[in-house]
Amino acid sequence: MKFTRRTALTGLAAAGAMAALGAPQLQAAKTAEVGEVGDNGLHTQDWFMESFLDLGEDQAALAKQNKYLAVIFEQRGCSYCADLHRINFGRDDIVSYMKEHFGVIQIDLRGSRAVTDFDGKEMEERALARRWRAVFTPTTVFFPKEAEQVKGRKGNDAEIFRMPGYFKPFQFMSALEFVNEGRHRTGSFQRYLQDKVADLRKKGGEPDAW
């Protein structure tokens, strides 16, 4: 699924709808301290990939492990980025699922480190953000497992899904499953989310309200 203005608005609408449910929690969300802060002022996790920021090489390495590449754009002082680390990454179910199926690279929306896009062009992090039209933080961009599907392409032409902004744990985990289960190939995330909530309610549950 190529990212467009429509997919961004659809993702935000789905996230907003879920946040507004105000329903009893199915599972109490575990929170954690915000975590370590790097020299660039970004919160970080010890399970993020160590990378020379050659995205083609990173994606090819993950493809051999049958994992997706996820690139997260964050910035200093972003309260929603702090929530991502404190709330979402404070949950064992989310972290274990990400470790199993994804490799994560963190990019500073305003940073100056050199990054090489999949088409071989090198630029600063902030230029990459502009090139990929990453506006909100955090924004998480997902790429296919197959190396040939990204080689020689700009990141925003090769991406298969993105989360534009902060998604609360239920939506966030649902987005991970949407990508990992290959649902992005055949349907919309909004419909997937609606079906998941409907199925949960049939079983007498409700999505957690975090």
Q: How would you describe this protein?
A:
This protein has 210 residues and is of the alpha+beta class. The protein has one domain: 3-Layer(aba) Sandwich (Glutaredoxin), CATH 3.40.30.10. The chain is 38% helix and 14% strand. It contains 8 helices and 6 strands, in the order H-H-E-H-H-E-E-E-H-E-H-E-H-H. The strands form 2 sheets. Strands 2-1-5-6 form a 4-stranded mixed β-sheet, with helices on both faces. A two-stranded antiparallel sheet has the order 3-4. The chain starts with a helix and ends in an 8-residue tail after the last helix.
Number of strands: 6
Write down the secondary-structure element order: HHEHHEEEHEHEHH
CATH superfamily: Glutaredoxin
Low-confidence stretches: 1-32
Total helical segments: 8
Domain unit count: 1
Based on secondary structure, the structural category is: alpha+beta
Strand content: 5-15%
Specify the helix fraction band. Answer: 25-40%
Q: Please give the CATH class.
A: Alpha Beta
Estimate the global geometry from the Cα principal axes. Answer: globular
Measured between the Cα atoms of the first and last residue, the distance is 27 Å
Question: In CATH terms, what is the architecture?
Answer: 3-Layer(aba) Sandwich
Mean pLDDT: 86
What is the C-alpha radius of gyration, as a whole number of Å? Answer: 16 Å
Largest sheet: 4 strands, mixed
Using the coordinates shown, work out and report the CATH topology: Glutaredoxin
Give the strand line-up of the largest sheet. Answer: 2-1-5-6
